[in-house]
Specification:
With 399 residues, the protein is mostly helical. The chain has one domain: Amino acid/polyamine transporter I (Up-down Bundle), CATH 1.20.1740. It contains 19 helices and no strands.
Length: 399
């Protein structure tokens, strides 16, 4: 492969990671962080990015000794047997099915508004249309993502161009209303950076090349980090904290931003960005879910090809049924997404690295043993955050 072709594949991997990570939920994230203020929010975003980037490097080091076709469930099984396989499979599938149901629901709403369809036809058309893209595998998703993601960034840049000139330094320097929120919002940030499910697909796409994989993960997570920080700066700098903390929906935020700037284009721009972000995330999570199902239930995959109809039906039908028949269920699933993300994206890579080193594999990570052992300590703390909020020992997040 020529150097130019390799660079093109790496850039495709960057866009796939960033597109999966940078979801429509980013727009409403300031509703969750409003009482923490911009300074602590920015600090938390950078810290969690550092944590999730490091755990991604842990996965990549493990994959130097494994085929990318061995998913997280298989790796957990090899390390600690069937109980570990069951726990990891449950965490990953609950996480991804919750996201897929949410994306399917919102995608159906989007098509319903654009085409004048009812909700059910909108959900079905959206699922079939982009489900067929997922069925083509990583190359099919990459081909569509290369068109959608640059447009998504252009729209985001346009929003910022309208908002940043009106940012007030006084608003940005407002102190946090509750210091404890610094801890409470961290699981939300972990979910926002939970791109790790796509790593096996990316590793296969880049022929498991360690250098290219590290480059793709750095840029693929760096773009969302920059976007999160600049969006928080724009919203916290545009809207006083007292007003921002009283909002409960993205629609209210959109109305307030439009009023603050006097520009009606912002509302439409936010809707367009949300639609693009929703679709790139649907493609990334859908691709990852097909690979996870194949890895978790290899008997089903053997009855067809890797993304044959049995796997595709398992990928797409449950989210559609949840959306249409039990519309509140995906909200319940999403409420546990932070917990599931901590299990598979923070604790699992630590377990796999420890097992690999006991097997004599040369796992090379920055920071030495101290940084390595910090990972499970932070992971356990993050698992305790919902319990501490339930006991009123930490303030509850809103939004």
């Amino acid at each position: 492969m020529t150097q130019r072709a390799q660079q093109g594949k790496t850039w495709g991997a960057v866009m796939l990671i960033a597109g999966t990570t940078l979801g429509a939920g980013m727009l409403a994230m300031p509703l969750t962080t409003s009482r923490a203020g911009f300074g602590l929010t920015a600090l938390g975003l950078v810290a969690v990015w550092g944590l999730t980037y490091y755990t991604a490097l842990m996965f990549l080091e493990v994959y130097r000794y494994h085929s990318p076709q061995e998913g997280f469930s298989t790796l957990a099984d090899q390390a600690h047997g069937k109980p570990a396989r069951f726990a990891v499979t449950a965490a990953i599938l609950l996480y991804m099915y919750g996201l897929m149901a949410a994306y399917t629901n919102e995608g159906g709403n989007l098509l319903s508004r654009l085409l004048g369809l009812g909700h059910t036809p909108g959900v079905l058309v959206y699922t079939v249309l982009f489900g067929l893209v997922v069925k083509q595998g990583v190359r099919g998703v990459d081909g569509v993502n290369r068109w959608l993601f640059p447009v998504q960034l252009l729209v985001f840049g346009g929003l910022l161009a309208l908002m940043l000139p009106r940012v007030s330094l006084g608003h940005l320097s407002a102190p946090p209303q509750e210091l404890g929120l610094t801890l409470s919002i961290l699981p939300v940030f972990v979910t926002a950076y939970s791109f790790h499910v796509v790593l096996p697909s990316i590793a296969e796409f880049l022929d498991n090349d360690p250098a290219e994989l590290r480059r793709a993960v750095l840029w693929g997570t760096g773009i969302p980090l920059a976007a999160y920080l600049v969006w928080q700066l724009a919203i916290h700098g545009l809207i006083p904290q007292a007003q921002l903390s009283g909002l409960t929906s993205l629609g209210e935020l959109s109305d307030l931003v439009t009023a603050a700037t006097g520009n009606r284009l912002l509302g439409g721009g936010m809707d367009l960005f949300a639609g693009l972000a929703l679709t790139t995330s649907f493609l990334g999570i859908g691709l990852s879910l097909t690979d996870s199902l194949r890895d978790s239930f290899p008997g089903i995959a053997r009855r067809g090809d890797r993304r044959g109809w049995p796997i595709m039906l398992l990928t797409l039908v449950p989210p559609v049924l949840v959306t249409l028949l039990v519309p509140g269920a995906f909200v319940v699933l999403l409420s546990y997404s932070g917990l599931m993300a901590v299990i598979y994206s923070i604790l699992l890579p630590f377990v796999l690295v420890r097992h690999a080193r006991r097997q004599g594999q040369d796992i090379q990570l920055p920071g030495g043993p101290a940084l390595l052992w910090l990972v499970p300590l932070v992971g356990i703390l993050l698992l305790l955050v919902p319990l501490l909020m339930g006991l009123d020992l930490l303030p509850k997040v809103s939004g």
